[in-house]
Amino acid sequence: MLNNRYRILKPLGQGGFGKTFLSIDEKDLQGDATPKLCVIKQFFVESQNIYSYQKGSELFHQESLRLAELGKHPQIPQLLDTFEQDGNQYLVQEWVDGQTLEQELSETGAFSEADIWQLLGDLLPVLQFVHVHQIIHRDIKPANIIRRRSLTDTLRDAYGKAQRQFVLVDFGAAKYDTGNWQHTGTLIGSAEYASPEQVRGKAVFASDLYSLGVTCLHLLTQMSPFELYDCSENTWVWRSHLVEPISPSLEKILCKLVQPATKLRYHFAAEALIDLNDSSGGVVTTNIDDDFETPFFVLSRQQNLPTSVTAIADNSVTSVTVFDPATQDWYYFPAKTEGGELVRKVAAFLGPRLTAAAATPPVRETKPTAVDRKATHKLKKMHQIIVTAIAFTIACLALVVESNSIPTNLKVEISRNFQQFMNIGQNEKLLH
Q: Beta-strand (E) ranges in 191-343?
């Protein structure tokens, strides 16, 4: 008996920093009342290393904070209680009735394409929810995804009979995204499912998407992700290990999820959801429940968008996610023009004009009059204003395209044209 109310029934598992137990909450349990099942996680570190203990204790404490912050999301276990006893730390969370995908895979075999569509459709909105809270899970794998065996009446009424079957568990490795991608953190997570940047201690939101994609590959092939990647050729070879062929649309989404380079991968779950909806012909929507501390996000591309939302989207160069308070909906708009296309247009426009300007000899006045000097002064001022405005515009454009995935040769081209433009401006200044 723990904390004078939780009776341990059996152990469920053990991870790097904790043991989990199935328990009964015996508080207010009277007569024939149905026992309330819960999961108790005890902080436990096998290593005697002081650093490992301190790091594990920090992560254990953070897990309770993450679960409390994420609220009562039906696909994330709810935090019920935290306490200490006999020098040990414990957290109590909701028990999810079901099997992990790892258990299901060993019992029923490889997943079908329909199963993968459902998994992505269920978990991508959860990841979007988690990432909006600036939290990176960092340990997405089959063992941390549970298919709920049955839905309660409350969940069935709110989400429909066939929805919300997958639950994301174990936030013990989760961390806040501080935005400091230059800082190398601790390697956390399962190596088989971790992205290249996470292996280097620099996890970002896209790292969770990578892990979800690798999870799908494992479920489709029943093979270790290590065996699905050819290190000598530096490429994925999972297609040759598929139990059953999959559609080109699903293959395209999976390939983008598991791109080693973050610039070629989905950056946010909302981007993957858009492709998922376009490919499957469905619309991913979630209902809003007043009991939730944070509302769910409706990711859609409706035709009758509010004027304010449309205005923001129309004036955005990069992708944008917009919340409309009037409808309580979130709208995701992908970038209308890719960075590479912007660079090509600028380079094509500036190239011939700068070449022509450089080849045109300046006109020198031998005996300028007072009127000519006044006109020349005005032209010089106008010239400076124009040059400054164009240079500022190009600098802003360079900043925008720098955040997008563009080939190196295009970056070189825009830099060369920009330098040529600045050289012409400098020559004009010397001549005047």
A: 229-230, 235-236, 299-300, 320-324, 329-333
49: Cβ contacts below 8 Å, ≥ 6 apart: none
Q: Is 139 a catalytic residue?
A: yes
Dihedral sign, Cα of residue 344, residue 348, residue 353, residue 354: positive
109, 102 in Cβ contact below 8 A?
no
Q: Which two tokens stand for residue 155?
A: 């969940």
Stronger pLDDT, 408 or 306, i.e. the higher one: 306
- Break the chain down into helix, strand, coil percent, rounded to 5: 45, 15, 40
Q: Are 246 and 120 in contact (CB under 8 A)?
A: no
Return all residues near 184 (Cβ < 8 A) that are at least 6 apart.
200, 201, 202
pLDDT digits 0-9 by tens, 135-166:
999 999 999 999 998 655 444 444 444 444 89
Task: Give the SS3 label for residue 135.
Answer: strand
**Strand runs labelled E in 262-364:** 299-300, 320-324, 329-333
The H or E element that residue 45 is part of is: none
* Dihedral angle sign, alpha carbons of residues 295, 299, 305, 306: positive
Q: Tell me how far apart the alpha carbons of residues 365 and 381 are, in angstroms, rounded to a whole number.
A: 18
To 10 degrees, the CA torsion angle through 365, 367, 371, 374? 60
Helix (H) or strand (E) holding 84: strand 79-85
Catalytic position from the list 86, 115, 122, 139: 139
Which range has the top average pLDDT, 87-101, 203-217, 365-379?
Answer: 203-217
Q: How confident is the model at residue 347 (pLDDT cuts 50, 70, 90)?
A: low
Q: How far is CA 406 from the centre of its chain?
A: 20
Contact (Cβ atoms closer than 8 angstroms) between residue 93 and residue 80 = yes
